[in-house]
Design brief:
The chain has 769 residues and is an alpha/beta fold. The chain contains 24 helices and 24 strands. Strands 12-13-11-14-15-10-16 form a seven-stranded parallel sheet, with helices on both faces. It is globular and about 100 Å long. The N terminus is likely disordered.
């Protein structure tokens, strides 16, 4: 029976592999001018000589060899490897190091220390052991630039012939008395540069890879497995077309993987990681662009291309003037609606930039063509606010509109569903209730999804299917025009990484009359007392205020969170219900308070909002249910408790609930003065700039999949640090899709296989609304 690759590497390494992938790079744009077409040594500017090119081994990869199972001893180690996904050679090679450190030197070893050392054998011999049944013990005198010691190997007498004098080794074990080193694991250290002594200073010092491990398997054991599989790196196929690698200045994949595991210097690691990160980003962009192209090719929408009538009158009657950004957005969306290609556009903007007015204009374009439009929001509170805003903005225009949520009474629900099915009802605002099977539209042409990241793909797909209408089969290929809205400005890097299958429209400009908001951090008893005094002064002047808490009840489970770059935050989050009662008899005694949180019955929530909107309540104590959609111009103060527990973008959204009237407003952030998040809010008012800062602090999160959070994080790419690679990958993906949208060309065969292996077939289907 043939022995599988890397079998014995955990216990004893075999001889150095004879087949290795050459360290070859292609020229970058600058060096190409000097030596066109001549390859360079990996991660070096030096061009390879004619002799080196002639002597370079030619090897045709056999990727099937990477599917060979790892031969591991049964038990804890095999189970631990399987838990990490290390079941075959290919997965082992793709289990990249998370860190690299120089090996310990002989002179630095402390008695009893477990360590990894890079050494060279000076002499080696076996000596018998008196204990019956034990094989001869092998002792080797090994050395590095700092000193020598005796390495002891147990039960492996064959090592005397395998490791002759001059062999370079990586040893892991325990330092014992008498400059003795008890070896647990070992492997050939053949990637130390020629002429360098192990442990010497400078670039020749051995870099030892450290891997994510688990209970039952150590990083060193994984290292030995990888070293035992060194020859298999030559079997890695190259998915990128040669023209693309040349134009982007990227090393081949086998060389990049080799450098990640066996770097000969820090420069190699950077170049190798960039190549593998580019692969990940390219695959994601290809997925997004194929998804968009398939939707456009496979489904059609109703073309809303007749001259504007209702929508023009509506704009003329608005009590305010549209900003330049709003007018540009309306033009972009109008161009999308005029075609039979289903619109898939993301509308994002600064807090208070007027996204709802732009969305309503798109909905009215459907109405004036005799069709229907729907707006779906993630919560009842937000849906109710949108319904009220639509009613206020519509003015005297006689457009029938209804609200449908889970709390809608049975009688009103039946009436609404009947009017939707008959086409009598033109506009509908609702929650998830809109996607229930009993909801049937006569002619749904435009869909607006607010806070779309809070809906799952399947939920959006269910609303998308409503465009088929009551006729069924005759309209099964019909799709609505879909406008996704988000109140969180999204940096371009994240927009490309997360929403690359959508066209993007951004609103930066704020309407005239919006007052700037002063922001301050409240840290310490003196600062808090000044904050309450300011709040009371505003209330006495006839203004109103919000107090925002992270929890509803004090009994809620709320794990400690670490502030990025700062200290741990104590688990002392304030709850809205307790704070409401405390403030009513404490700092805000004598003022009228209302309580609002998501767990309240609908009628109580409506009553609380109505009291605050009408001015009957001076203070609204709430959770983040007020994050979007709330518009009370008389509110001029917001105190956010435990502000360090929120993300920057969420804090900016909350802050946007004030500053909507003619009076100056103040946002008070209760939290540590040293918090990077809170300092960013104090220093910046631009939501797009804050979103960039937020991205740097929190990274990009998960991007693609049937859950909104996605299938997985990138394993190699780091956003936003790799934004330049993302832009390059996007350009290459656009070129590929324009020429070969289904990746059927021979030059794209391996790339198509990589795409299917990474994401499967389902995510490649048209993006649902």
């Amino acid at each position: 029976m043939a022995r599988t690759v890397a079998a014995a590497a955990v216990v004893a390494s075999g001889p150095p592999p004879t087949a290795q992938s050459p360290h070859v790079d292609v020229p970058n744009r600058r060096s190409a001018a000097a030596s066109p077409g001549r390859p360079r040594a990996f991660a070096q500017r030096r061009a390879l000589t004619e002799a080196e090119l002639r002597d370079a081994p030619v090897h045709w990869p056999h990727p099937s060899l990477l599917a060979q199972a790892l031969d591991l001893p049964a038990g804890r180690m095999a189970d631990a490897a399987a838990a990490l996904g290390l079941t075959d050679v290919g997965r082992l090679i793709m289990h990249l190091p998370r860190d690299r450190r120089e090996a310990r030197t002989v002179a630095a070893l402390a008695l009893g220390e477990q360590a990894t050392v890079a050494v060279e054998i000076r002499s080696i011999a076996a000596r018998p052991v008196r204990r019956r049944g034990m094989r001869p013990l092998v002792e080797a005198t090994v050395f590095d630039a700092t000193g020598s010691m005796r390495a002891v190997f147990f039960n492996q007498p064959w090592l005397v012939k395998r490791y002759p004098a001059g062999t370079r080794l990586i040893l892991h074990g325990k330092a014992e008395a008498g400059r003795r080193f008890r070896v647990a694991y070992h492997a050939i250290g053949d990637d130390i540069a020629d002429g360098d002594t192990p442990g010497s200073d400078g670039e020749g010092a051995e870099l030892v890879a450290h891997y994510a491990a688990g209970e039952g398997i150590t990083s060193t054991q994984i290292l030995m497995l990888v070293r035992g599989a060194r020859a298999a790196f030559a079997e890695v196929s190259e998915p990128l077309p040669a023209r693309m690698r040349a134009s982007e200045g990227l090393p081949d994949r086998a060389a990049a993987l080799t450098a990640m595991h066996f770097p000969r210097g820090p420069g190699e690691v950077g170049a190798a990681r960039a190549r593998l990160a580019f692969d990940e980003l390219l695959l994601a962009q290809l997925l997004f662009l194929r998804r968009r192209a398939r939707r456009r090719a496979e489904r059609s929408a109703r073309a809303l291309d007749e001259p504007a009538s209702l929508s023009t009158r509506w704009v003329a009657e608005l009590p305010f003037s549209l900003t330049g950004d709003q007018e540009a957005a309306i033009a972009e969306i109008g161009a999308d609606l005029a075609t039979t290609r289903p619109m898939q556009r993301l509308l994002m903007g600064e807090v208070g930039s007027g996204k709802t007015a732009v969305a309503l204009h798109a909905m009215l374009r459907a109405v004036e063509h005799g069709y229907q439009a729907a707006l779906m929001a993630p919560t009842e509170t937000l849906a109710e606010q949108h319904f009220a805003t639509v009613g206020r903005l519509m003015g005297a225009e006689p457009v029938p509109c209804a609200l449908l949520t889970g709390s809608t009474s049975a009688r009103r629900r039946a009436d609404t569903l009947g009017k939707l099915a008959s086409g009598e009802l033109s506009l509908i605002v609702g929650t998830h209730a809109l996607i229930e099977p009993s909801v049937v539209f006569r002619g749904l042409a435009v869909v607006v999804i607010d806070e779309q990241h809070r809906f799952g793909v399947r939920q959006r797909a269910a609303l998308d299917a409503k465009a088929a209408g009551p006729s069924g089969a005759a309209e099964t290929r019909r799709a609505p025009h879909v406008l996704h809205m988000t109140a969180t400005p999204i940096p371009r890097t994240l927009a490309l990484a997360r929403y690359a299958d959508l066209d993007v429209t951004a609103l930066h400009e704020l309407p005239l009359g919006r007052r700037p908001i002063r922001t301050a951090i409240v840290d310490g008893s003196d600062s808090r007392e000044r904050a309450y005094e300011h709040l009371r002064a505003e209330l006495r002047s006839g203004r109103q205020a919000y107090v925002v808490c992270p929890l509803v009840e004090q009994t809620e489970v709320d794990d400690d969170r670490d502030e990025p770059g700062g200290a741990s935050v104590p688990n002392e989050a304030k709850a809205a219900t307790a704070e409401y009662e405390r403030l009513a008899s404490g700092e805000l005694e004598g003022f009228t308070l209302a309580l609002l949180h998501g767990q309240m019955p609908t009628r109580e929530k409506q009553a609380a909002m109505a009291a605050f909107a009408s001015g009957a309540a001076d203070v609204l104590v709430a959770t983040t249910v007020i994050e979007v959609g709330i518009d009370v111009p008389n509110a001029t103060v917001m105190l956010i408790e435990n502000a360090e527990r929120f993300g920057i973008s969420q804090l900016h959204q909350l802050r946007g609930r004030i500053g909507r009237g003619e009076h100056d407003s103040t946002c008070l952030l209760g939290g540590p003065a040293g918090s990077r998040r809170l300092r960013a809010l104090v220093e910046h008012r631009d939501g797009f700039r804050l979103a960039e800062i937020d991205l740097h602090l929190r990274k990009e999160g998960e991007l693609v999949g049937t859950r909104q959070s996605g299938l997985s994080h990138y394993r190699v790419a780091r956003l936003p640090d790799d934004a330049h690679l993302l832009a390059r990958a996007r350009r290459q993906a656009e070129t590929i899709i324009a020429r070969d949208g289904e990746l059927v060309g021979p030059e794209h065969a391996l790339l198509a296989a990589e795409l299917a292996d990474a994401f499967g077939e389902a995510p490649g289907q048209p993006i649902p609304a």
